[in-house]
Each structure stands twice: as structure tokens, then as C-alpha cells.
Amino acid sequence: MHQHVEKERTVLVAGRLYLELAVEHKRGRAVDKAEWHHAGDGGHLAVAAARLGATVSLFTHVGSTVHDDDMVRTLAGEGIHVGDIVRRAAVAPVSYVREEFHGTRQPVALSLPVASTLTADDADEIDHLLLAHRWLLLDAALPVGFLDAIAERAQLYGLHTVVCMKKLPEEHIPRRTWKNVDYVVASPRAIETMIRKANWPQEVLHDPARLCGMFPALRGVLLVRSATDLLVSDGRAQQRLPLGDCAVVHVRGVCAVAAAAMVVALSEARGLFEAARFAHAAVRFYVSHAGTRAAMPLRREMEWQG
After folding, report:
1. 61 CB contacts (<8 Å, ≥6 apart)?
2. Domains annotated on the chain, with CATH
């Protein structure tokens, strides 16, 4: 039986959740510091949105170990509804470890290449969550069958759907999925992958309006170019929001923070460009502080006049 979810929660996040080991190197030493962190864009999106003022539910799957219990308890401690998280063993090949590298000043993140097992059938089982929320925020690295099914059901129930494209699934996301997406927040790396795999035009990297032209259902695109700037377009106008001279302490998680912040602002009936400025303020705070989730701002901590 599903646990009760109060009506009119703001944001339903669907995304991955797993553990990773962050390793920091220092000149002359093999390893300076290594720490386990809760990872996965599902958890990052949910925490960032909750800290910025949204009421948030997370739909994902985790295993049944004490480490999985700790990840779920931590999310609940952020005020996130976790009562519908599926307990299911993850599929993790043990033959190699995935490495994520963001430059010499950033820690190397090591994790097993955990594959989400969410399917179209799972999307069919969460109508009660879709009915209780107004916005759907999707981690684009989820399996294509689940992404396609939940985006379609969200449109059926009148939710606004936002896709965070930091990573992508191994399968190709079909054009029909994009017909049910309202907004995209993407990293250049994800865009480059789509240019290579889906024949998106090269110009999208510098002109996100081209993406709105390709998919008429899109109301806006936010391109998060690491610690350089944010580009936002509604298909007609475009605005660049430079990050300037903010102290870049950490860049992993930037796309998730930007996507969560934009959804929070849009859910408050702010326009796209004002929502992008809110995301810009959240990102400026984030890259100026150490850690991943530890650096995600509370709303009162941001320099935001809106």
C-alpha cells in the first residue's frame, strides 16, 4: 500500500541514488583525502529543491543495506518525502569502477557503474505521486523506457516536466519523449553527446534557441557551462548570465543545482528569465563553497532580490 502523500506538493523528482568515493589528490602524495558521499542526481536535485523552498518527493530505487538506509534517512532529514522509494537491488557490474573527473582542482569521484532498474511499469505505478504534484523534475540518465512513460503520464495529468541533462542513458532518447518535456537544463557534455548520438546541430552548444526550434513543446532551455556562465533561451530571446569572479571551490553538481533552482522559481509563477537568474544566484553560491550537497544553499543564504 502506498504511503500518504499530501496534496499539492511542489516538485516530484525522479532520479538515481547511490554512493561514491570522492578522492582528493595533493602534489607529492598519492591520496590526500578520501570520503564516501551520497551521490546520484536524483538525490542532488531533491535536496537542492527542498533547501530552496519547494516541498519535494523523490522517486527512485535503492537496495536494502545499512548504507541505503542511511541515504534514505538523510533525504528524509531534509524534509523530502521518501515513502515511495522502491527497495530493489541495483545492477552493478563488479569488473570496473567508474571515474568522474572535473579538473585538477576537483576531487575524483569513484563509484560502481550502477544501472537504474526503473521501467515503464514503475511509471504506471505512481499515479498517486503524479496527481499530488505540479512539477516533475527528471534525471535524464534514467532508463529510456521509464523516462518516456513518466513524461507522457505527467503531461496527461497536467504536470510541467523539466529534464536535467548532466548524464544520459546508454540508449537513445526518442523524439517522442521530447514532445512531453517543457524545459531542459543541460551541461555542455550532455549536449555534445546528443550532437554525436542524435545528430543535434553543433550550434546548440552556443545557441540553445536551436533546441526550442527542434522541439516546439519546449518552453525554455538553460545551458549550464560549468563555472563559466549560464545561457538561457525561450526560443526567441537569449540571455547570458556570467559567473564572473566567484571563487570556484566545487563544480560537480552544478547542473543539478541549476535545474532545481529553476524549477523552484518556475513553480512560484516566475518567468523563464527570472527563474534563470534565480538559478544563477544558486549556482554562484554553490561554486563558492566546498562539498556537493554540503554546498547547496538554503534560500536565506543566497544573494537574491526577487
Report:
1. 17, 85, 86, 87, 88, 90, 116, 117, 118
2. 9-16+40-90+116-301 (3.40.1190.20)
Q: CA-to-CA distance for 163 and 141, rounded, in angstroms?
A: 10
Asked if 247 and 220 touch (Cβ cutoff 8 Å), the reply is no
Contact between residue 302 and residue 281 where contact means Cβ atoms under 8 Å apart? yes
Separation CA 134–CA 132 (nearest Å): 7
- pLDDT value for 18: 82
| pLDDT, tens only, 110-164 | 555 567 889 999 999 999 999 999 999 999 999 999 999 999 999 999 999 999 9
Q: Which pLDDT does position 105 carry in this prediction?
A: 59
C-alpha cell at 94: 563488479
| Distance between CA atoms of residues 291 and 171, nearest Å | 31
- Residue 227 confidence class, pLDDT cut points 50, 70, 90: confident
- The reported pTM is 0.89
- Measure the CA–CA gap between 32 and 282, rounded to whole angstroms: 29
- Among 123, 100, 119, 117, which residue's Cα sits nearest to residue 20? 100
Looking up cell 528569465 gives 273
CA distances from 40 to 17, 28, 43, 145 (A): 4, 31, 6, 19
Helix (H) or strand (E) holding 251: none
- What residues contact 99, with CB distance under 8 A and at least 6 apart? 108, 109, 110
Q: How many Å apart are CA 299 and CA 52, to the nearest integer?
A: 5
